[in-house]
Write a structure and sequence with these properties.
Elements: E1 16-25, E2 28-38, E3 43-47, H1 54-62, E4 68-76, E5 79-80, H2 86-91, E6 94-97, E7 104-108, H3 109-123, H4 131-144, E8 155-156, H5 162-176, E9 180-184, H6 192-205, E10 211-215, H7 219-224, E11 229-234, E12 237-242, H8 244-253, H9 256-259
Parallel strand pairs: 3-10, 3-11, 6-9, 9-10
Antiparallel strand pairs: 1-2, 1-4, 4-5, 7-8, 11-12
Helix pairs in contact: 5-6
Length: 270
């Protein structure tokens, strides 16, 4: 009797799986067929020149309705992400840190944070935190991030410096503990100290169940947050991928080598 070979274990499904994603704004095609897998526990960097579609990809994943998806699919934690409204994506653990965080005059940080956290807990079937529990949690996080506790009583980003706005987003991320955090050029306009504070916040949250997507122009952020994979977005597609050495090549050479055919669409660097 012939024995059957043991079946090979199947690879775990990526936390985020993008296939052939196409999107446009005002009738202009920006994403022209993005294919990308992000595993739980992975930190992935997406680099590319201006106009390549990096911020568009972040906004589409977050559910920004000014972008029109014209093709492809996105699976997040086994769910059809494109079928979910933006608020449902947030409750399901997707977090977007903006390149330019907006001010919300008249709304205090503490009110926004408490509302966001309790909305998330409600989605998870957990009871809301009372005021005392919430304040204790926030105070502990502000100390960890080197922030003044009075910070949370101010209006959301109202009168904040660029560094303060980014620290505020790190506080939001630390409180909400997302499964997938997308940082859209969060290093824009930051001095060295603020950049290190952002990196500290991200590195403290690295975990086996959580993934990060870092969208950046510059290798300097990746000196502080070392990615597992680097992907280059060019003319609306991921054209090459590699390890941290790919970011260092971009820092040395820019993107001119892409124009000279060094990477064909969908090519993958080891």
């Amino acid at each position: 009797m012939q024995t059957q070979a043991n079946p090979q274990p199947q690879a775990a499904q990526p936390l985020l799986q993008i296939r052939g994603l196409r999107a446009e704004i005002d009738g202009k095609l920006v994403l022209a067929g993005v294919d990308l897998d992000i595993a739980a526990g992975e930190v992935a960097a997406i680099m590319g020149p201006n106009g390549s579609g990096k911020s568009t990809l972040a906004q589409v994943l977050a559910g920004r309705d000014i972008y029109h998806v014209t093709g492809g699919s996105v699976r997040y934690a086994g769910m059809d992400l494109l079928a979910m409204p933006a608020e449902e994506r947030a409750r399901a653990g997707l977090f977007l840190a903006f390149q330019y965080p907006v001010e919300i005059p008249g709304v205090s940080n503490v009110y926004l944070l408490k509302a966001a956290l309790n909305a998330q807990r409600g989605h998870q079937g957990l009871p809301e935190l009372d005021a005392m529990e919430f304040l204790q949690k926030v105070k502990a996080l502000t100390r960890e991030l080197g922030m003044d506790e009075k910070f949370v009583q101010r209006g959301v980003n109202e009168g904040f410096s660029g560094g303060e706005k980014k620290r505020n987003e790190m506080l939001q991320m630390a409180l909400l503990q997302p499964r997938l955090a997308i940082l859209d050029e969060t290093d824009s306009g930051l001095d060295v100290d603020a950049l290190k504070a952002v990196a500290q916040g991200v590195n403290a949250l690295r975990a086996a169940e959580r993934a990060f997507v870092l969208i950046t122009h510059y290798e300097r952020l990746l000196e502080h947050i070392v990615p597992d994979r680097v992907h280059v977005l060019w003319q609306g597609r991921i054209v090459t991928s590699g390890g941290p050495e790919l970011a260092r090549r971009i820092e040395r050479e820019g993107y001119a080598w892409l124009q000279h055919g060094a990477a064909e669409p969908s090519a993958q660097e080891a």
